[in-house]
Design a protein that fits this description.
The chain is elongated and about 55 Å long. It contains three helices and six strands. Helices cover 26% and strands 45% of the residues.
Length: 134
């Protein structure tokens, strides 16, 4: 399985295993079902992997974006969910089959009002370092 699929799977497992987070959201998705309106929820978004090889093995730096979607008034709900995601992922290397995550850290966090005027959209970017097990 590719390193990007392993990364997404590890993040999905970590997020859906967090009982406090799951009590506050309706789900974690890669692709949100059509006409889904059970806010708030989280999507695992874009990732960028850069390979770096050494004489001793293969490694990757990875950046992955997590999106929070809320229809609550104001940003408080979205920011609270982002805090739970931060607590779940930041500085918590995740298990991956065939790879070792050396670290994962939040790089940035933002909340904004979507163009529909009612959806709050939280965006978090996490960076990680991953090596391939030989």
């Amino acid at each position: 399985m590719s390193v990007s699929n392993q990364l997404q799977g590890a993040i999905y497992t970590a997020l859906t295993s967090d009982t406090e987070l799951m009590a506050d959201i309706s789900g974690v998705f890669d692709a949100v079902p059509d006409n889904y309106d059970q806010f708030p929820y989280v999507t695992i978004g874009e990732d960028v992997l850069t390979e770096w090889d050494t004489d001793n093995g293969t490694g990757y730096t990875a950046s992955i974006t997590i999106h929070t979607w809320s229809r609550a008034t104001g940003r408080k709900e979205a920011k609270g969910i982002q805090g739970l995601i931060y607590d779940t992922l930041h500085n918590t290397p995740l298990p991956m089959t065939g790879y070792t995550m050396i670290l994962i850290k939040q790089e940035s966090e933002n909340t904004l009002l979507d163009p529909d005027g009612k959806t709050r959209h939280g965006v978090q970017t996490f960076n990680s370092i991953i090596t391939r097990n030989n």
